[in-house]
Recover the amino acids of this structure.
C-alpha cells in the first residue's frame, strides 16, 4: 500500500516518466529539421539620386507586391556523436532516477515497517498491561481478605492499589500511542486517518535467514542503492567529458530548400512572374576555434570525472561500514531476543515463588510488587527485542538494496 499510495513514491515515479520522455526527445533529434516559411510585402518605388541626395531623384518603377513561400530541410549526418552522447546521457539520468525511486520506495517501506512494528508493539503492550491489571485486581482481592483477617497491614493494601492505579495510567498512555501510531501509518500508506489498523501477524524472529558477512558483502556492490548511484554518476561525468571533446569535431549534414516566389529577381534579366527554385547540398564545417576555446572546458570535465571516481570510492567505503554496522546490530538483536526469553522465564518463576511466599506471610509486599514489575518489564523487553530484531533485519536488507 505504501508503494502504491505514498505521495513521495508517486512524485519519484513521475520524475522517472519525465526522464523517459527526455530520452525520446533526444532520439527525435536524429530526425530531419523541416521549416516552412513565407512572407508578403509591399515595396515603394526605387528613387535614384543621380545628382546627389539633396537633388530630386529619378523614380525607378519596380514591382510593388512581393511574396515568397518555401520549405527548408536539414538532416544531421555527423556532429561528433553529440546526438548519441546526449541519448546516452539521458539513459544514465533515467537509470539514476530509477535507482533514486527504488531507494525512496525502500526507505518508505522501511518507515512503514517501523510504524507497523511500533503499532504491533503497542498492541502487545496493551494486552500485557490489561492482563497484568486483571491479575493485580485478583491479587488485590486476596490482600483485602488478608487485611480483614488482620494478617497484613493496611499499607500493603494501599501499595497494591497504587500499583493498579499506575498500571491504569500506563494503559491510557499505550492506548494513545496506538491512536498516534495508527494515524502515522495511515498517512504513510495513503489511507484515511481514522481507519483502524490491527496487526494480526506474530513476531517470529526465529525465521530470519542470517547469512555470513562475506555473503552479504558480495551482494553489496550489485544491489546497494548508494553504490549504484555513485557508479552511474561516474558514468554520467565520463559521457559529459566525451561530449565536450566532441566540440572539436567535423560536422556534416544535408540541406535542401524549395520555394515559390514573386517576382523573379534571382537571375538577371528579372521577370514580373512567379518562379520556383529548389536547391540541395552537403554542408561541412569544422570549428577551428574549438582548439583553444574548448581546452579549459575539457580540463574541467576531466577533473569532474576524477572527482566522481573518488566520491564513488568513498561511497563504497561508507556502504561497507553501514553493512558491517547493520550486520552486527542484527546479530546483536537476535542475541538480545534469546536473553530476553531467558529473563522472562526467570522472572516468571521468581514471581511465582514470591507470590506464594507472600500469601504464606514469608515475604513483604514490596517483594511481591517488585517481582510483578520485573515480570511485566521482562515481557516488555522481550517484545521490544523482537520488534527491534525484525526492524534491524529490514534495515540490513535496505542497506543491501533488497528491501
Amino acid at each position: 500500500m505504501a508503494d502504491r499510495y505514498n505521495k513521495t513514491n508517486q512524485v519519484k515515479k513521475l520524475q522517472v516518466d519525465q526522464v523517459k520522455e527526455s530520452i525520446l526527445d533526444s532520439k527525435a533529434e536524429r530526425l530531419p529539421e523541416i521549416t516552412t516559411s513565407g512572407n508578403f510585402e509591399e515595396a515603394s518605388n526605387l528613387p535614384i539620386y543621380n545628382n546627389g541626395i539633396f537633388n530630386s531623384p529619378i523614380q525607378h518603377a519596380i514591382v510593388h507586391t512581393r511574396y515568397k513561400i518555401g520549405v527548408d530541410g536539414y538532416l544531421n549526418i555527423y556532429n561528433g556523436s553529440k546526438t548519441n552522447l546526449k541519448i546516452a546521457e539521458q539513459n544514465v539520468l533515467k537509470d539514476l532516477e530509477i535507482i533514486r525511486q527504488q531507494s525512496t520506495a525502500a526507505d518508505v517501506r522501511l518507515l512503514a515497517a517501523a510504524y507497523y512494528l511500533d503499532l504491533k508493539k503497542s498492541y502487545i503492550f496493551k494486552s500485557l498491561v490489561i492482563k497484568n491489571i486483571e491479575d493485580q485486581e485478583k491479587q488485590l482481592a486476596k490482600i483485602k481478605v488478608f487485611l480483614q483477617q488482620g494478617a497484613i497491614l493496611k499499607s500493603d493494601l494501599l501499595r497494591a492499589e497504587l500499583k493498579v492505579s499506575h498500571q491504569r495510567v500506563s494503559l491510557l498512555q499505550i492506548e494513545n500511542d496506538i491512536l498516534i501510531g495508527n494515524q502515522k501509518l495511515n498517512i504513510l500508506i495513503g489511507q484515511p486517518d481514522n481507519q483502524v489498523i490491527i496487526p494480526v501477524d506474530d513476531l517470529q524472529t526465529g525465521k530470519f535467514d542470517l547469512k555470513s558477512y562475506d555473503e552479504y558483502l558480495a551482494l553489496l556492490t550489485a544491489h546497494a542503492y548508494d553504490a549504484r548511484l555513485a557508479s552511474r554518476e561516474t558514468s554520467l561525468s565520463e559521457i559529459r567529458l566525451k561530449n565536450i571533446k566532441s566540440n572539436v569535431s567535423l560536422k556534416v549534414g544535408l540541406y535542401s530548400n524549395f520555394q515559390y516566389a514573386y517576382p523573379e529577381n534571382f537571375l538577371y534579366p528579372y521577370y514580373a512572374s512567379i518562379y520556383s527554385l529548389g536547391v540541395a547540398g552537403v554542408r561541412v564545417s569544422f570549428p577551428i576555434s574549438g582548439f583553444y576555446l574548448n581546452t579549459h572546458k575539457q580540463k574541467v570535465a576531466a577533473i569532474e570525472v576524477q572527482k566522481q571516481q573518488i566520491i564513488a570510492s568513498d561511497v563504497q567505503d561508507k556502504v561497507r561500514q553501514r553493512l558491517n554496522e547493520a550486520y552486527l546490530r542484527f546479530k546483536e538483536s537476535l542475541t538480545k531476543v534469546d536473553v530476553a526469553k531467558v529473563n522472562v522465564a526467570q522472572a516468571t518463576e521468581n514471581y511465582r515463588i514470591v507470590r506464594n511466599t507472600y500469601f504464606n506471610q514469608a515475604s513483604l509486599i514490596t517483594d511481591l510488587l517488585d517481582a510483578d514489575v520485573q515480570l511485566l518489564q521482562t515481557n516488555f523487553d522481550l517484545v521490544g527485542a523482537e520488534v527491534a530484531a525484525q526492524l534491524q533485519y529490514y534495515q540490513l536488507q535496505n542497506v543491501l538494496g533488497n528491501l
About this structure: Residues 2-31+79-250+286-400 form a domain with the Outer membrane efflux proteins (OEP) fold (CATH 1.20.1600.10). The CA atoms of residues 177 and 234 lie 46 Å apart. The chain has two domains: 2-31+79-250+286-400, 36-78+255-285.
